[in-house]
Sequence to fold (475 residues):
Amino acid sequence: MAAIQAARLLSRRNYVLPGQLLITELFFEVPKNYARPEAGTLKLFGRSVRKNERPITPFSAAELASKEKLPYLAYLEGGPGFGNRGPQNHALTQVALNRGYQVLYLDYRGTGLSTPINADSVLSQGDPKAQADYLKLFRATNIVRDLEAVRLCLTEDFDEEKKAWSIFGQSFGGFVSLTYLSKYPQSLREAFLTGGLAPVKRTADEVYAATYKKLIERNAAYYKKYPDDIASVRRIAEHIQSQTKTPLPSGGNLTVPLFLTLGLAFGGHGGLDEVHSLVLRFATDLDQVGRLTHASLADFEAHISFDTHPIYAILHEAIYNTKRTGGPASNWAAQRVGEALAPFSWLANPATFLRATPPSEPLYFSGEMVYPFHFDGTLGTELGRMREAADILAATAEWDEDLYDEAQLRRNEVPVYAVSYVDDMYVDFELARETAGLVKGIKVRETNGWYHDAVRSKADEVFGVLFRMRDDCID
Fold:
């Protein structure tokens, strides 16, 4: 990648939170399109955090300056399409502060409090092709450019040896980390990845062929734990199918395929229980009042957040278009691969599937997949308004640049520490292992003891493993 100009710092505001955390709220300005800086700018929002120490005697000016210039650890969130929680709500904060870092939580372009992506902002770009071109600017390559521009801004007056920073990538944040390692390795001191070893060499079709296999295992685990839900899930699906319409509070419509996307939760700790709780609530509604209540439908919508985080839906398959040219278009890969598999053939025609399968056959939930029906108004109008742009992206086989530089990863010199989950439903373990073999010098802890969200649900254990890998020498 070409050299990047530092981001322009627009504002900085400090405040102190209980627990002795000094939070700095930051707004930056960066080019919308780095290849065409004259095309306008975007705003990025982030929060940096460090200890708010109160010594018995005040710090000297030199000591205070040193505290302000602690090495940065930048956290890269999963998704794509999600902003960051507050630093006080993130388990990484105290772990990193105790190890001498200050931490930056930067909302990627289009997410959180950074310049948002929504139907209004996308449609304002012009016709569907212009809309799709705009959305392409929100891929990992430009996220990395933004990070690099912000790094240059924040470390402008740091000593040279402190200008490089560390990164911590969870899930899609790990994908972004591999792009960063590909493009600006000289800017990185070290990289930590959790559930984020992207399938660098694989197409979207190959990715979904692998993740559907794991999804079948997770469905089997669900019905083994909750065997009575075989009947409950089918009863709910048949009720939904029998209705002319089941309006959702946000204005969408609950369909059988949308109901069966609840399996997205199966990849996290407690995910089976989470889905069972909602199935129980729906089944109880049918027992007591013969319909799905407003409160239950609102609870359902809270589990399916694509409409409020549209980048997740509209760019999800694009994260697997790794090559600028030569790779196939994703072409709604999750739909095509899934409907060819017997347990997920409801994707082709749910009414036919329900009629053709016996009541004793469990209905399998889908997982981390985005389908064309997400854009047909079932989730409300937001995604539906971007359907034409989504179709163009699905048909795109030629992109502006490769997401990863495999040659650079093979000669990597940046220390990389990764945790990879054998039972990861979102990032296939075998494909992750393939990628680990590509990155020179990487240290990987492979485990079947945790699921994909362990960085939140098993945080102390995960951080302990990562920092032991960093600190312990293998003689």
User: Anything to note?
Assistant: The beta strands are 8-17, 21-31, 41-51, 72-76, 102-106, 165-170, 188-194, 416-421, 443-447.
